[in-house]
Structure formats: structure tokens, C-alpha cells
Design goal:
Elements: E1 2-5, H1 17-30, E2 36-44, E3 57-61, H2 69-87, E4 91-94, E5 108-113, H3 117-120, H4 131-141, E6 144-147, H5 150-159, E7 167-169, E8 190-194, H6 203-211, H7 214-219, E9 221-225, H8 232-240, E10 248-251, H9 255-264, E11 267-270, H10 280-286, E12 291-294, H11 299-303, E13 308-310, H12 315-326, H13 329-343, H14 348-362
Parallel strand pairs: 1-2, 1-4, 2-3, 4-5, 5-6, 6-7, 8-9, 8-11, 9-10, 11-12, 12-13
């Protein structure tokens, strides 16, 4: 069976969860007997494509998105349509949302829905953002839709008019991060926060919960990995909460550096108001870091018993959950043990096998 992935996400993301998912899926599909997976990205900016096995990727890397970004995206998609037609695949898996498929006539199409954030948190996006409109069209047009959690499937079916039997769930895998074993980032023990911090990610809520506990402030710092340097509004919040700038640190770095951060943390905190799946808790579990997380959306579905849960809209609930783990070596050890078992339930090989079963059912 020949499977083609289109170029969409690879002209939009240099790095990112969606492009990492497609790359991992394509690689593991290729490892299965009788399967040829092709990523057709005539022009792309994505860094992950450079490291894939030879023969999977067709295209040329551009150093950065040209000023005419939309034209760049559309021209790559147009060329992808021509290349996919010549390839003659049995399945085209669309990597993001577009009104018009690149699949040749008669070829079955699949699209993955990662979350319903644009629909549930529209205030977080520009009024010019057409993602939700294009998602609706793409899911209605596709022969089958994959969701990455039951929570996302439930939201999709509630918000869009789709038949239930057209939508399946396939969980993501995650990559085992290899630590550098570098120097400790903090003299004091620290709470770890990973990724973007704005809007529904609820970093502000996490900080308020931390600041509300004199015991947490006295005994733990906060380390933020990724998400860019602190904004002026965030620094103002630090000042309003009377938090020392030395207590709240932000760093960027490689996956190995991130692994160091997980391994050295007293607790990983995941306060998001919504997630379509949520890979960071699995990364934390894989490196022996206990997890405290929100009790909403897909998060309990992924974390199961390996997390200390809190209501992300309740500062006291978040504070109590963090203090409960950090005050109890027994609870901390229990969460770490649960994490070892839970992380084993998720792999890219399993993701590829379940996705292939969907492709075969469409033929």
C-alpha cells in the first residue's frame, strides 16, 4: 500500500507537535511490511524532515518562510497535488486543514483532528484565522477522520455535523528524550512548566497557585522550559505577586536539555484548561518526574492514575495538589511508579499499526 502525506504542516511549522506526529507516523508506517509512506512536501521549512530515513521525504528545504507566506504555502500544495497524482497512492493523509484536497479523484482521504481549541477558545485567535472554517470543510470532505483522544472525538462530534462511524481515535506516541546530564538549573528544588504559556495554557493560574503558598515559595523555584522569553505582562504579574525574578526562570534548548529539566524537577505541573492529547506528562513520566495536572479534557484520559489532579480554574485546588505531592515522599514515589506503567501504553509503533488498520478499512 502506498500512502501519501501532503505538504501543509511542513510549510507552516519549523518545529511543532503536529509535524513531529506526521514524521513519526510516516517513519513507523514504513517499518511495517508492504507499506510505502511518502511525505510530499515540494518546498518546506520543517526541521524534522531532515532527519527522516531516506526515501520518505520528497522536497526541498527552504531556510525560512518567504515574506509571501501564503503564496509559499499554496504553491507547495499545488506542486504536491501534481506529485501525488504521479505517485498514485491508495491513501492520502492530509496533514492539516484545507478546503480542497490534493488527492487524485477516487483516492481515499484521511485527516487528523488534534483538538478543538479554535472552536472552544475563539478569543485566543485572530478574527482573520480561518482554521475552524477549513477544519469543518476538511472533516466533512474526508473519507475518515482520526482524533488523537476520546475527548477530542467527543468535542468534534458535538461541534461539527459528522457521522459517528466516520471518526476514530488513535492515540499518539511520544519520543524517549535522552538527558545530557548537565548542571542543575536551580540551587533550590524546582517546579517545572513546559511549553507555551498564553491563554488556555493557564500559566497565570499556575503562578497564582504557587504564589499563594508561602511553603512553596520558600522551598521551590519555578523553571519554565520553552515558550519564549517572559513578556512584560508576565513580569508585571511576577511583581504583583511579589515573586522574585530569581525564583522564576525561563530557558530554551534541545530535547536533551528538556530531558535534564524533567529529570531534575521535584514536580511537573500541567495546568492547561484544555488539551487535545498532551505529550509532556508522558515525557515527564518517562524520566521519573511526578506529574500534577488538570482534571479536564483529554488529560485524565492520557495520564490516568499517574497524576495528582486539580481543578485548573481553582487556585486552592492547584495549590493543595502541588503541596500534597511535594510534602509526601510516599505519594511522589507512588506517582513515579504509576508513570512507569502508564507511559508504556503509548508508542509510535502502536499509533502506526492502528492508523494502518483505518487505511485498510477504507480500501
Amino acid at each position: 500500500m502506498k500512502i501519501a502525506f501532503d505538504s501543509q504542516i511542513f510549510t507552516l511549522q519549523e518545529y511543532g507537535g503536529i509535524s513531529r506526529y506526521i514524521c513519526s507516523l510516516a517513519t513507523h508506517l514504513t517499518d511495517l511490511e508492504g507499506i510505502e509512506a511518502n511525505i510530499i512536501a515540494p518546498f518546506y521549512i520543517n526541521a524534522y524532515l531532515e532527519n527522516l530515513p531516506k526515501g520518505i521525504v520528497s522536497g526541498i528545504k527552504i531556510p525560512k518562510i518567504p515574506k509571501t507566506g501564503r503564496a509559499f504555502h499554496q504553491s507547495s500544495l499545488w506542486l504536491a497535488r501534481r506529485a501525488i497524482s504521479k505517485l498514485a497512492p491508495q491513501i492520502v493523509h492530509e496533514t492539516y486543514f484545507t478546503e480542497h484536497s490534493v488527492a487524485p479523484k477516487g483516492v481515499r482521504t484521511v485527516v487528523t483532528v488534534y483538538d478543538m481549541i479554535h472552536e472552544l477558545f475563539p478569543e485566543a485567535f485572530s478574527k482573520q484565522d480561518k482554521t475552524s472554517v477549513q477544519k469543518r470543510i476538511a472533516t466533512q470532505r474526508a473519507d475518515h477522520v482520526i482524533c488523537i483522544s476520546e475527548s477530542t472525538r467527543k468535542d468534534l462530534l458535538e461541534l461539527f455535523d459528522l457521522p459517528e462511524d466516520k471518526v476514530s481515535v488513535v492515540y499518539l506516541g511520544f519520543d524517549n528524550l535522552i538527558p545530557e546530564i548537565s548542571e542543575t538549573h536551580k540551587i533550590k528544588p524546582y517546579l517545572l512548566y513546559v511549553g507555551q504559556r498564553g491563554g488556555y495554557k493557564n500559566f497565570d493560574g499556575f503562578l497564582r497557585a504557587y504564589a499563594s503558598s508561602l511553603w512553596l515559595r520558600d522551598n521551590f523555584d519555578v523553571l519554565c522550559f520553552g515558550g519564549g522569553a517572559f513578556l512584560s505582562a508576565e513580569k508585571k504579574l511576577f511583581a504583583d505577586l511579589i515573586l522574585s525574578e530569581n525564583a522564576i526562570t525561563q530557558i530554551n534548548g534541545s530535547d536533551s536539555k528538556l530531558a535534564d529539566c524533567y529529570r531534575g524537577a521535584a514536580l511537573f505541573v500541567y495546568p492547561s484548561l484544555y488539551e487535545g492529547f498532551g505529550i509532556p506528562p508522558l515525557e515527564a513520566m518517562s524520566l521519573g518526574c511526578p506529574v500534577a495536572c488538570s482534571n479536564n479534557s483529554s488529560i485524565p484520559e492520557v495520564v490516568a492514575e499517574a497524576g495528582e489532579y486539580f481543578d485548573p480554574n481553582d487556585i486552592d485546588s492547584m495549590r493543595i495538589a502541588m503541596e500534597r505531592v511535594l510534602n509526601s515522599p510516599a505519594r511522589r514515589a507512588e506517582l513515579i511508579d504509576f508513570g512507569v506503567v502508564r507511559r508504556a501504553q503509548f508508542s509510535w509503533q502502536h499509533c502506526a499499526e492502528e492508523t494502518l488498520a483505518i487505511y485498510r478499512n477504507l480500501r
